[in-house]
Amino acid sequence: MDASVEIAQVDEAAAAPGGTLGAIALKLAGSEGSGENASRLTASLSFAGSVLDLGSRGMLPADVDLAATLAAGANKVQVDRLQVRTGRSTFDFAGSIGPKPATGTAGEEPSYRYDLTSDGSTLAPSESSEPALDFIARVAGVYQTRSRKLVAEQIGIRSGAASEALGTASVEFARGKVPGISVAFNVHDMPVSHVKQLWPWFAARNARLWVLKNLFGGHVVDASLQFQVVPGRLGNGIPLSSDEVFGRFQVEGSRFDTAGHIPPIRDAVGVVEFHGNDVDIALSSGNVYMASGRTVAASNGTMTVKAANRPPVIGALDIDVAGEASAIAELASYEPINGMRRVGLLPEDLSGTVTGHVKADIPLQRGVDSSKLDWLVTLDYKDLSLGKPFEDQTVTDADGSITVEPEKAVISAKALLNGIPAELDLTEPLRDGGPPRSRKVALMLDDKIRAAAMPGLSELLSGTVKVEIDKSGTGNQTVSADLTNARLDIPWAGWSKGPGIPANVRFAMAKSGDTTTLSDFDLNGKTFSIDGGVVLVNGALSSARFSNVKLNRGDDVAVSVKRSGKGYAIDISGRALDARSLIKQFTSDVDTATKATGSDAISVSADVNSLTGFHNETLSNLKLDYSAAGSRVNGLKVNATASSGAAISISNTTGAGRRALNVRSADAGAILRFLNIYEHMEGGSITLALAGASDGPMKGQVDSHNFFVVNEPKLASLVSTTPAGDSRSLNEAVKANIDTSRVKFERGFSEIEKGAGYLKLANGVLRGPRIGTTFQGTLYDRNNKMDMTGTFMPVYGINRLFGELPLFGALLGNGRDRGLIGVTYRLRGDANKPKLDVNPLSVIAPGIFRSIFEYR
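and the corresponding structure tokens:
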């Protein structure tokens, strides 16, 4: 028997829901058996142009060819060939189909069983760029006639030598509905390219498309896939849920493509999971290779795609990175991040090591506006250096972090800024409307660094200081510093602040070329303050104007300083100034005092209404002009009025290789108290005149008349104390009680030699109606040692006894007259606390013998 039936393709308008069968061709051939040959019926069936309609998931076209044989008594149909062709894929199977024997189980429905194998099929999905996959397979199961359900109880697929996928599937047919489909697969040790080809086109379509386009190479170590929908579910417009479709793929050695121009992640080890239309990728490790050859190590990464079925499809990337600074910078410069576009540095400008974290929205389809994507790059770097200046600053050995996001970059670091240890906190806007630009820098300046970078400040500042610089927006830089742990010196004023005394300074700094201007300068402490402005040139002081200077309580002056050649010109004017620190500095010893001013030339001009000195003495209407270079005083002229109304004048002049110092005052006691030279003197006049070569000692004399010494304790002690080795005091020796509470002197005189670090006195005398003394010797030498000798007699006056008169010495006297009763003495040792030795025999010896016992 031979029969042939052909049915033309059904018109689309009349096609049943779920698809069309296309053109059908059926051929039947039969033969009656004889002998050992059983009767048989052969059939061939083809469907050409068949289409399975999956609604919104599209159409699945297919051509089917079936050749089968039914032999009498076989109780099954032998499938000689079952070939299904869809797109570039071909499935060739052979096997058998027949009634399934009843088992007697309650509720069992009639069914047919089948067992099909393929010795060579080819998979090549149209959406995949991978090469076509050849595989072998076995499918065995049943078709349940009553429930119209095709069940694949066993599915086995093998590609290559050892790669296999095992699973189950079922298709449930319902009239007028899209079939329901259930698929479950497990994969072990299969190349990624094979898994991509084997992934059913109808299962997790968006996740499948992403894997097809973005995952290449490597192996799937383990994978699982489950897909289960009821009839009519596919194409009903409702996205598949995480319970309907989900899967997990563990991959090694793969390549993940990202988006934009960011290079792919290679050698990747990770997991791809999907649930419904959500895709989660976890990356354990991988490497990013840039076109330049630089490499970035990636780890602990994730990329999450939510609702991959709804455009725009955007993945959330979250990944750790590590590598050389140049490589990280190159990675961050790619779109859509492009975090380096406004920094002004190229990757090759950076060196050092970087670790960090990248979070970014990654567009997974074309047409997404990258300006609306969010991203965040946080990096920690070590030993980072810039190969070229950044904003005119050289940055090296930086340890810190940088955070970059669409609106701004924030940098925090400890680094060497132009070779100076610094702490940096910078904010850089990356788009219009971003935060204002901010530059906050804290410099750690010790003496060595400051001497190299700012040599002009070494004489004013010592100790480690933290200087904070804040430049926000487009304005000037604001600088502040805590000077508590530093020593601050103003040598021209004889003023200093030691470490530990709280102090702060703040000013606005503007730089133009080599010139730096410090405006709104404010230095303040508990008892002092300076306000004004400063100009530095090449780091050295050029000029300064301070409208308010208060170094001590009660100060009220203005000071201007201007660089003049290698020196400074200083002008001081105002209502009141406390001069005690200045006096203390310059009366200690001119050579020692002027060392504090360094070797620079200094000129000072002062006009102050009231000048406060020691012992509550004040001078009024002070006019001063002073110039010096190091320890050499070139000129000094002072005019003032004491509180008593007496005039005071001081002049120090140089010329023709010589110098001269002259002091005159009609109130000697006032000037000595003011200068803290001697507090027990009242009234009197004083004249000092010294002269000498400009490079040698000065010689001259001091002469004072008609003054009183009041309440001098050492004078009282001298006349009342019994010397060691004797039995009488001076009062007892002269049989009188010498009154030392207020002693008048008619004259005080001494010849003076003042050299570098020493002061010698000769032919000294103090003479009064009742007490007198002579003296000579060294008041102090370069080692601050004293060695003075003399004679004290109750017949004459005395200015000051045994010590602590820096100008006159311990004892001054007139060697012309010597009484019959007196003592000889010697002062020696530390000039501040000399030791007094008295010859007791001289108390009772006649004057002629006293000369014998006098110390030589």
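(Above: one complete record from the training split.) Residues 589-597, 796-820, 843-853 have pLDDT under 50 and may be disordered.
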